[in-house]
Design brief:
This protein is of the alpha/beta class. It contains 6 helices and 9 strands. The protein has a 7-stranded mixed β-sheet with strand order 3-1-2-4-5-8-9.
Length: 235
């Protein structure tokens, strides 16, 4: 089965220059989790509420009447009297939500992973707390991409920074430790914690591959099945 979220993640790197400063990348990837939940059809409640327009993705990622830190993707009940919008290529409509039923936070570690790992873990933990502040029953999903390429180039405007394996470690040199810290310190904060292992050098022609494509699909599909079952149990 083809999963839209995995395709969207691939599209950040495959054949294009990855620009990590773009703040909407996490939102773009996270939005497809809800599409995949509908496509797999394991939650009757979720599918029925999406089809009827009762449950939507919050385009602004904030909850009406409740202040909370903005996440990458939020899904819940449409506020009564508010019109939802249909966007081309999406099944789930967009609108304003009363509370977060499913919240998603996305992080992508392409290089310099250990340098930023504490901040990433802290951001993940705080975001899950904010999701639950709007709704104690909220399903919290963490999605983290971890690069395992043997070299990498990042870009800051017109400047470029290439890993050298010494001062600037290659992604492969840091990936295992980064994943270990995430699993030890961040995983328990989430109902589902999805790690996407990939290889991308960000060097022309910008190749991309999953470390294990079949296993990535299986693990992601299993997470969707568990989320569907838990959604029916909670809502």
């Amino acid at each position: 089965m083809e999963y839209k979220l995995l395709d969207a993640f691939r599209g950040l790197f495959d054949g294009v220059k990855y620009e990590h400063r773009r703040s909407t990348l996490g939102d773009h990837v996270a939005s497809f989790l809800f599409e995949d939940l509908v496509d797999v059809g394991r939650s009757t409640k979720l599918v029925e509420r999406v089809r009827s327009g009762a449950a939507v993705v919050n385009a602004a990622n904030v909850t009406v009447g409740r202040k909370a830190r903005r996440g990458d993707g939020t899904f819940g009940d449409l506020v009564p009297g508010v019109c939802a919008a249909v966007f081309p290529g999406y099944v789930v409509q967009r609108g304003r939500i009363a509370a977060v039923d499913i919240g998603v936070e996305t992080k992508i570690l392409a290089k310099a992973m250990i340098q930023q790992i504490d901040r990433v873990i802290s951001d993940l933990q705080r975001q899950a707390e904010h999701f639950r502040a709007t709704n104690p029953r909220a399903l919290c999903v963490g999605i983290v991409g971890i690069n395992r390429a043997e070299q990498y180039i990042s870009f800051e405007g017109t400047r470029r920074f290439k890993t050298d394996g010494r001062k600037h470690k290659h992604p492969l040199q840091e990936a295992e430790e980064a994943e270990s810290r995430l699993m030890h310190r961040a995983r328990s904060t989430f109902d589902e914690f999805i790690v996407l292992k990939f290889r991308a050098t960000n060097i022309r022609p910008y190749p991309f591959e999953w470390v294990d494509g079949r296993e990535t699909e299986v693990e992601y599909g299993a997470a969707l099945a568990r989320l569907s079952r838990e959604y029916d149990a909670r809502f």
